[in-house]
Write a structure and sequence with these properties.
about 270 residues, alpha+beta, five-stranded antiparallel β-sheet, 9 helices
Length: about 270
């Protein structure tokens, strides 16, 4: 695949992403059909959605894994799906408020607090689902384990209150983000698709300088995820260079010095 094909494919994928279109392969269709046959699918989807998916995939083949896949004994794991996921997700989509009761670490139960849910988050470390919501009375952001929620119900919020919460969340989100400019080294322009894939989990914009024949990626990242972005940049090695940000350049320089010192010591001892 040449450079122009890669650029064209990236433009197509960007347009599809902007329009909310998702492309899937035949293997993914087969996997989805197999997963829909699992008992947990009835809890994860509404009856109407499950029937619709099964109808769409009725002509797709299923994955027969029984002959060549064997599950080994393992420790007991927490169930990834939680019964509150679907109703809370519906509240987030419809921008409804909630009346929530939840328990704290010391066993105390906070009864019927008014809130506005805006995100569901899964921790891979703790293997727990968290609800991120805005406390209406305290006017602060909250994070609560779904397993700690004892009761929750949807309720409509006044329009003025909803607008105030939206403004507060948007302001807080903007203050937590920073923009990092990453320049693609010209000799690696052909690897643009690989570089963009490494930054696929971040909001980004790509610009091209025709005179310099160079690409620059503007990455919008939360401040608490800067170190994760740096790990991606380190992975790309000499293919990219940070254009702005004293802190980021300093961190990359520190990493390089430590690596050089480590290998220099090993060579001296040999």
């Amino acid at each position: 695949m040449n450079l122009f094909e890669k650029i064209f494919n990236y433009q197509i994928l960007s347009r599809l992403e902007e329009s909310g279109t998702l492309t899937i392969t035949s293997q993914e269709r087969a996997w989805l059909k197999t997963m829909l046959g699992q008992p947990a699918a009835k809890e994860a989807f509404s009856e109407e959605t499950l029937e619709k998916l099964q109808r769409i995939l009725q002509d797709a083949p299923s994955l027969d894994t029984h002959e060549y896949v064997m599950e080994r004994a393992k420790s007991r794991e927490k169930q990834v799906f939680h019964p509150l996921l679907r109703p809370l997700h519906r509240c987030i989509i419809e921008e409804k408020g909630i009346l929530i009761s939840y328990s704290t670490r010391n066993g105390r139960v906070n009864e019927e607090h008014e809130g506005f849910p805006y995100k569901l988050e899964y921790s891979m470390v703790k293997r727990e689902w968290y609800l991120l919501w805005f406390h209406v009375k305290r006017r602060c952001k909250m994070s609560t384990k779904l397993s700690s929620i004892t009761a929750v119900s949807a309720q409509l919020l006044p329009i003025k209150e909803l607008e105030r919460i939206r403004h507060s969340l948007a302001t807080h989100q903007a203050s937590r983000k920073t923009t990092v400019q990453v320049k693609v080294v010209r000799q690696y322009n052909r690897e643009l698709s690989r570089i963009l894939y490494a930054f696929s989990c971040f909001e980004k914009e790509v610009s091209y300088d025709e005179e310099q024949d160079s690409y620059e990626v503007s990455i919008h990242v939360p401040r608490d995820e800067v170190e994760y972005l740096l790990s991606k940049i380190r992975f790309l090695g000499k293919r990219v260079q940070i254009s702005n940000g004293t802190y980021l350049k300093k961190r990359m320089l520190e990493t390089s010095k430590k690596a050089l010192e480590r290998y220099a010591e090993e060579l001296e001892n040999e």
